[in-house]
Amino acid sequence: MMNNFFRRFFNTEFLPMSEVKKIKITLVMFFLLIITAITIPFSFFFKYDLIVKIIVLAALVLGFILIALLIRWNKISAAAQVSIVYTIALTVYYTGGTSSFYGYLFFFIALTIIIFYQEIYSYLSFGTLVVALGMYFIYMHQADLMAVEDIANSFYIYAIILFTFYLIFLVQILYNEKIYIDLNYDWVKMNHLIARYQDSSLSYLNELDKKSRIQPSYEDVRFQKAVGDVSIFLSEQFRENGKEIINVRDLYLYIHERGLKKILENEEFSVATKKIANRLDKFLLNGRTDMTSMIFNFYTKFRSTAPLKENRYEYALDKLTQKRDEQIIALALLYQYLASEMSGFDEWDRMDRPLSHQEIAELMMSPEMEEFFSAELIAFFKDNGDLFEKYLARKS
Amino acid sequence: MQRKQTYVFSEIEEYREMLENRHLRTKNLFVLILTTILGIAVVTYMFITRYELNATLSLMTGFIVVILFNFACLAYGQENHRFNQMNQYTTTLGVFGIALAMIFIFKSPSMIATLFIAYAITAFYQDMKAMLLSNAFLLFAVIAILFKFPEYLDFANSGADNDFGVPFFFLVFIIILTISSYIIIKQKRFFYNQIALSKETEFRNIDLMIDLQKQATGKTIDLAKYYESVSEFAKAFTKKIETENVLQEKIQLLQELENHTSYATLLAKYPQYSKEDFDHLDDLLMGNHEKLMKLAIKISFAKDVHVKKREIFSETQFKSFNHQHDSLDIKILAFAVFYTSLKRGNAMMRPLTEEEIYNVLVYTDYYYTIDPRIMHIYQENNQVFDDIVTDDLGRRGK
After folding, report:
1. In terms of pTM, does the model score above 0.90?
2. Residue B245 sits in the same domain as residue B166
3. Which of A14, A93, A121, A160 best tests the B interface by mutation, with the highest count of B CBs <10 A?
4. Using CA atoms, how far apart are residues B38 and A168, in angstroms rounded to an integer?
5. Taking CB atoms and an 8 Å cutoff, what residues of chain A touch B336?
6. Which among A115, A313, A353, B141 is least surrounded, fewest beta carbons within 10 Å?
């Protein structure tokens, strides 16, 4: 288990946000455990009554258990918020009990834990609270924070440095938030586009299967048996009766046969079964799902591909060539492709026809084309639309 | 020995680096602005409080050197991105150097926290090497203060808890800061990797679609007709703008490249062009899997692709067999279906061998798309999986 945790920790760049959040909260828990443990000996030095110390320590233990339970129940965001509150509570306890320099350090520790989560609203609310508490601490204990020989009004320096630290990370979190949203937007958009390619690929694949009289895998008894046996083998590693998983396999195959909608509408099925069916939907093989996408992507690894070139992912025409004559020829070829090949979608989102001149003109003027063509090139198309239509459009 | 985990498509490395460099310039700019503001604040404070002129001028020089070097790297970084990379490390050294100088000049415990400011500034780079440099500097400075210059922490009213508390919480702070920076850097890499990975996935999926379309429909593009029409178009266009037909030669050349005429023949026929020109023109070909063909497909698919706000950062966008809300049974079944499908093959792909599947599942990002418990069982028993499926699919002995 520890091995697996460290492997995931050192390979965080492969994990989605939810997994990373889990790792973060586990690490924070570890540090909070150490700090909480060390709080017991430190409490002897704090200026609280014994009963207050006992109550606070008991509350901290309870808080720690609460975070652990929230993680167990998969309430990761709630666990993160509670861990921040827990850290602030620890900060208040420490800084209320001591006026020493390490109390000042505690505010940086609290801020770093909040920064760790990289959530702007948490930082703005809890982070600001920590800074405010820090300012109060510095103001109240200015004499204790001064060295025997110190510069005049050094407490201002303490306050300014704490505030600057907070501010720099605020700028950083805001900047990260912006670029992550932009990157994620591009990524999601690309996912949609890839899904469309795969929709088409899947329909061609089905055609090919039909032509070759190959059964779809989910209807192939040998495939069904293999899936069942692999599932049983895996299931038996977790529980005594691994054969129960066959019910899930049968439900999975039944969804292919009847469709999810009919199963959800059927009152004979229990709510639990419907829930499982709903979750299985993304793994079906008879449409473009996560399962088929992952199979397609896996297969592409084993297909030959063009050698790597610097502009491998560059599609903007003015980046492919900067020469105007070449751009015009390329634009004419592109027009002809759209006007001659299957490029238009029908109402069921299937590509089934070439585009008319009117449709191409609309497409060229759409905002999506700014990614591929410069404004000059689009203007060129607009000015010479008649020539494109006359010489390159499909003759009916 | 365990092999290093990598991405399924090795092609993405270069693009990811390019993405990082693109953002590095902005980060450099942010650091420059922050350093300038802090420099002005520190020097102004020293002038107002009439601090020793020598010390003030030394610090001012330190800030000016760091700032000027940043400007120079930003300027040269436009030509060569290595200047932007180098700037991270030199600025890290510079900023920490200034922080240390401030501690020694002011000799006040309040100034020790300037090291944290230096760390915060350099954390902007989100670079592993810059982070290591910052950590080394921070650790070295803290150890030096604790053991070599303890007088900087000689407080007027110091308790016994301070003697233990200060080094302990310094240590805790540095460790938390390091781990936090490490994870944040990795998280940034995740986003860049996803973008790069999706670009390569798109590239390969377009290729796959072109081939499947050809196989399923039996149709290929009539390139001769395409070029004939484009020639007509060029003739009409040049006539319209009343110039000679300068496009025709390029059209002919492109057509010959489409027909795979050898470079030697083309060089003899078009002596004014070079091999590099032909390589460049390859991107404007329409046949097979060439760039222009891909662009045409991309254009026809790009219309009306809308992203909803709730889809951004949504877990459902991440294709995986390890969704946190799925039960173990569902995860097992999903893996079984996936594995068996790869072994079975289909009209587009031959059945994959156990070694091919194992190497991708275990040593690439696919590893993290599968529940770790299932992955562990597969790793330990992959031969059993292979035997089960080979037997059931009736491929034994073939």
Report:
1. no
2. no
3. A14
4. 11
5. 226-228, 230-231, 234, 249
6. A353
